[in-house]
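To fix ideas, we quote verbatim one protein's residues and fold tokens.
>
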Amino acid sequence: MTYPETQLRHLLPLLLICDNLRDPGNLGTILRSAAGAGCSKVLLTKGCVDAWEPKVLRAAMGAHFQVPIVNNLDWETLPNYLPTNTRVYVADNCGLYAQAQRSDKASDHGWVCERRLSKLHKYEEEDDDLEPGASRAWLPELEVQSYDLDWTEAPAAVVIGGETHGVSLESLQLAESTGGKRLLIPVVPGVDSLNSAMAASILLFEGKRQLRVRAEHSSRDRSYH
């Protein structure tokens, strides 16, 4: 498929990875935001709704013809579609419980998937039976970073998980292997979560803003010389 020349000129070193997104309306909205932000590519893992399903097409409002979309990828082959030196960032704070118990209620910190959090508790309870010194390697250790701090110094890929199951363990492992982090969008206490399409839009346009600021600084530095 060929894409409009205007769109290609505005593509950014910013990718989106959709992880088990099953709601067609959400996926369509996310694709529309990805096209608007200038994403260079959208990758869909196995388990996502078909990008060409009619409800997705309707919600995307033509985004399919403005941003390259790769469907039905498994986690073993997905890295082949990432540019060299890409860092993968995960829009997820389900693991805050395991990382740093900042609050009795993990949902105080933003986007939380209760089922993922329950699964995390279950795994940790099982790990309590491990012998001293045994590994908990099943859970990658990723630093949590606020979404508005700089994360676009290298080509960046953002993982957005579905609202039912959250992001997968494989996405966390990929982020860890590329030197990425968790990106946290803080919300006020009492608000359980953000819709996945809203979270994706916030992160993509924040990435676009950061890249624009970096380009402006670079241009200014060159003019001084």
Summary: The chain has one domain: 5-94+140-223. Residues 94-126 have pLDDT under 50 and may be disordered. DSSP finds seven helices and seven strands in the chain.
